[in-house]
Specification:
alpha+beta, about 140 residues, Glutaredoxin, DUF1636, 5-stranded mixed sheet, Thioredoxin-like_sf, Putative metal-binding protein, single chain, binds FE2/S2 (inorganic) cluster
Length: about 140
């Protein structure tokens, strides 16, 4: 069969799960004209057109329930990686750093980019990190 003849890509990058960047398109920002295109939408469109690694897709959704931290995004990459929500993002000033942070995330197997390799906005503007489902619980039967 033709499928059997297709070359296999066994590189570590090819084995990584896809990364999905979810951008809130309804986020507003203080000082931005309320009649103008929503900053969240601006950010979503900018990231969708950005030079991101293969395997990374961008989608827009209405509200991540992080409205007080607008603009906000969620970065996730399958069942093996930690996921992150970042906030207080500026669609213009932060675009290059967000792109760099996503690119670094996409190279990991577990979503944990070394601290010093994260863009400053990802170090300082994390709203939450969500563990992979397979991560076992801490022992809840023992006192700390
Ligand atoms: S409007 Fe963007 S998180 Fe709610």
């Amino acid at each position: 069969m033709a499928e059997d003849l297709a070359p296999q890509d066994d590189s570590p990058q090819a084995q990584l799960a896809p990364v999905v960047v979810t951008v809130c398109t309804t986020c507003r920002r203080e000082g931005v004209d309320p009649e103008a295109k929503r900053p969240g939408r601006v950010l979503a469109e900018a990231l969708n057109g950005a030079d991101l690694p293969e395997g990374v897709t961008v989608r827009g959704v209405e509200c991540l329930s992080a409205c007080s931290r607008s603009c906000s995004i969620l970065i996730e990459g399958g069942s093996e990686r930690w996921s992150y929500i970042y906030g207080d993002l500026d669609p213009e000033d932060h675009l290059a750093d967000i792109t760099a942070g996503i690119t670094a995330y996409a190279t990991t197997t577990d979503g944990l980019v070394p601290w010093r390799e994260r863009p400053v906005i990802f170090r300082k503007q994390s709203v939450a990190r969500i563990p992979p489902l397979k991560l076992p619980s801490v022992d809840l039967t023992k006192d700390d």
